[in-house]
Specification:
single chain; 4-stranded mixed sheet; 60s Ribosomal Protein L30, Chain: A; 12 strands; alpha+beta
Length: about 350
């Protein structure tokens, strides 16, 4: 059934089945706002993201279920970057009247699956008519103990720079999707990279444990590329940074892509690719052993890739050193909308 046949009220009624229960959520879908109870001594964390058709996704290559999963995951990644725990989420949609009801149902199944995995409950949202493009907006409400919230601004001179997981895989996945033509998703090359692009995993447990143990002096998620996001962190911290290109952690698939093409994937994919949704954080060198132990406990690599330096006038904020230790001249550090 098409959305224009279903109607707005019936659509909202049909989405109520995805609104779960939570002891802190007093009212979810069905009123003018959601209503929740907050804890004393906790900071409220609120983040919002929007995915726009033909800018962030294409419906021909992003199945509705995976689009729902990604839409929530990218907002959860922001909560992870602050060291927080998610509580509730809101979803706003701008849809064509010709949108099939099945698409919306699958979209919400994807949202619901990530919500169940992370303990985050649907609390409400909004829907609007548009001739296109489709837009999916997610807002996540979370919390963290007030004295454990990790900001971008805390990096200190001498801190090491760490990255969780691997980077560059999402950019490789996007490249595979962009060149797929009529090839079914199941037959695309670089399958793990395609999955990392369509279905990223927010590092909530890692962010929470780094914050609780007070191991991270500054932290953010990698959404627009390692180079650009690190630059943003340095600007907020009033510091500069040196990053070693050869130290960036990349997947076996990305290494294989480099061997197959004869081109290094380190700059265009690992350094500037974006949408990895890993965490980049800083920590004093004395914490290296504790971070290694946490990495083993979570079975999640936490790789040192550079160092925080003092900020000096007229010097670049980010210096990238190549395999020979020489500074590189780069046209861009990551993805910028404007």
């Amino acid at each position: 059934m098409l959305l224009k046949t279903l109607g707005e009220d019936s659509l909202i009624e049909s989405l109520k089945k995805f609104s779960g229960s939570h002891r802190r959520l007093l009212k979810g879908i069905g009123d003018d706002t959601s209503v929740s109870v907050q804890k004393d001594g906790s900071s409220l964390l609120v983040t919002t993201d929007i995915l726009i058709e033909d800018v962030h996704f294409r419906t021909k290559s992003a199945p509705a279920y995976l689009l729902g999963r990604k839409a929530l995951s990218v907002s959860l990644s922001d909560i992870a970057a602050m060291g927080g725990t998610p509580l509730f989420f809101l979803v706003s949609l701008a849809l064509s009247p010709l949108t099939p009801g099945k698409f919306i149902d699958e979209l919400y199944k994807g949202l619901d699956s990530v919500g169940r995995e992370t303990g985050c409950v649907l609390g409400g949202g909004n829907v609007a008519k548009t001739p296109g493009p489709m837009m999916v907006s997610t807002t996540v409400i979370g919390e963290a103990p007030a004295d454990e919230v990790v900001y971008r601004k805390g990096a200190r001179q001498g801190d090491l720079i760490f990255i969780t997981g691997t980077v560059g895989g999402s950019a490789l996945g996007l490249k595979a999707l962009s060149s797929r033509g009529k090839t079914p998703l199941s037959r695309l090359p670089w399958k793990k990279s395609v999955k990392s692009h369509l279905d990223p995993a927010p590092r909530l447990e890692a962010g929470r444990m780094l914050a609780r143990a007070r191991l991270a002096t500054a932290m953010m998620d990698i959404s627009d590329g390692v180079g650009l996001d690190l630059k943003r962190m340095c600007i907020e911290s009033r510091k500069s940074a040196v990053i070693y290109l050869s130290s960036l952690p990349i997947s076996d698939e990305l290494k294989a892509y480099g061997r197959k093409t004869g081109k290094s994937p380190m700059v265009d994919f690992a350094l500037t690719g974006g949408e990895d949704y890993e965490l980049i954080f800083t920590s004093p060198e004395k914490n290296l052993r504790k971070i290694s132990a946490l990495s083993r406990k979570l079975n999640l690599p936490m790789t040192p890739v550079g160092k925080i330096m003092s900020q000096k006038k007229h010097e670049r904020v980010i210096t990238v050193l190549d395999e020979d230790g020489e500074p590189m001249e780069l046209k861009k550090l990551g993805f910028e909308h404007y």
